[in-house]
Write a structure and sequence with these properties.
Radius of gyration: 37 Å
Strand order of the largest sheet: 1-10
Distance between the termini: 73 Å
Order of helices and strands: EEHHEEHHEEEEEEHHHHHHHEE
Structural class: alpha+beta
Number of helices: 11
Helix content: 40-55%
Strand content: 15-25%
CATH architecture of the largest domain: Up-down Bundle
Largest sheet: 2 strands, antiparallel
CATH topology of the largest domain: Multidrug efflux transporter AcrB transmembrane fold
Number of strands: 12
């Protein structure tokens, strides 16, 4: 991890060796006597750590009655080695016959997570995004580190929280997309019109993707929130145009006039939304103070997406309507000329 660019404050969880009595069980010898490691552990725990076996009542107060070795015996290796162990067949054997007892050194603390032992290697990120640093660490570890059986490496901390948040946002985005589609259909009552409005969503993504690419190519949680915001703006613009087109088309207005008048009537509202949002986001894009790690990526995505979404919406949606507008509402036919009068457009 030291060779990874952007790693700072790298450290291993402090482990201070301390003197301790180490008891290592001889499993084959214990099995010959019909003893299990669990049974031996209970006996040793009772002798060295104590076990409450009853209670004593003294002057209206209850005290626990614990059984264990005397303090000086708990520090004596010979006493521990000669500790008698009851076997299933009624024999009593010294602990030394099924275990090795000796002085040694070990860690001062043993941490656990989900019952498994845990040791932490921690570091901070500086000058690079967290995801790229962890990906590089993961590649190097996979190539150079091969843990023995029973050991595994887990990448946690802020990176784990970011991955979990990314998954939640992607699921929420999918749900939001479905909800927006249903609401659009209930508004325009037409599947082709709904499809035309939803086509506008990829147009909003174009500017956001280019903005992210130009500013480093890092997609963070804030960037994903910015894309969701763009979805709402793009959908609103598409709904304004298509709904106005449908209204004018229903008034028997020629298609060319529908597109020109419908677009001009909604141009002010669309541009006003885009420019006011851009003015509000511009200071956040160039901001360098605290909080920029959240506000800046979001602002970059939304600001870039606003320009492309607004421009492409005003060009692509009218073109699509001119091509497929005849499928959005009932077709028009012309009545037979009667008494020299100009025929009027009627609906089938």
């Amino acid at each position: 991890m030291k060779t990874v660019n952007g790693i700072v404050d790298l450290q291993l969880e402090p482990q201070i060796p301390i003197e301790q009595i180490q008891i290592k069980f001889n499993r084959p010898a214990a099995s010959r006597y019909g003893l299990t490691v669990g049974k031996l552990s209970e006996i040793i725990e009772t002798a060295l750590n104590g076990r409450v076996v009853s209670q004593v009542l003294d002057k209206q107060q209850t005290f626990d009655l614990a059984v264990w070795l005397k303090p000086d015996a708990r520090q004596n290796l010979d006493t521990i080695r000669n500790l008698l162990v009851d076997t299933p067949n009624g024999q009593k054997i010294p602990l030394a016959q099924v275990a090795t007892i000796e002085n040694g050194t070990g860690p001062n603390t043993i941490n656990r997570e989900n019952v498994s032992r845990l040791i932490v290697v921690s570091a901070n990120a500086n000058g690079r995004d967290l995801r790229s640093i962890v990906n590089e660490i993961r590649d190097k570890v996979n190539q150079q580190v091969h843990p023995p059986s029973g050991y595994y490496i887990q990448y946690a901390g802020q990176f784990e929280a970011e991955e979990r948040a990314t998954q939640n946002i992607l699921i929420s985005s999918l749900i939001a997309f479905v909800a927006i589609t249903v609401i659009m259909y209930l508004s325009v009552k037409s599947i082709p019109s709904t499809a035309m409005i939803m086509i506008n969503l990829p147009l909003a993504l174009v500017g956001g993707v280019f903005s992210v690419a130009l500013t480093g190519g890092v997609i963070s949680i804030a960037s994903l929130v910015g894309f969701i915001t763009l979805f709402g703006v793009a959908t609103r613009n598409g709904l304004l145009l298509v709904d106005n087109y449908n209204t004018k088309f229903a008034e028997e207005m020629p298609l060319k006039e529908v597109l020109i008048k419908g677009s001009m009537e909604r141009l002010n509202a669309i541009l006003m939304t885009a420019f006011t949002s851009a003015l509000g986001l511009a200071p956040l894009v160039v901001e360098s103070g605290p909080g920029k790690e959240i506000l800046q990526p979001l602002s970059i995505v939304v600001l870039g997406g606003l320009f492309t979404s607004t421009a492409l919406t005003l060009m692509v949606l009218p073109a699509l309507y001119a091509k497929f507008g005849k499928f959005l509402l009932p077709k028009r036919t012309t009545s037979v000329v009667e008494d020299g009068k100009v025929p009027k457009a009627v609906f089938e």
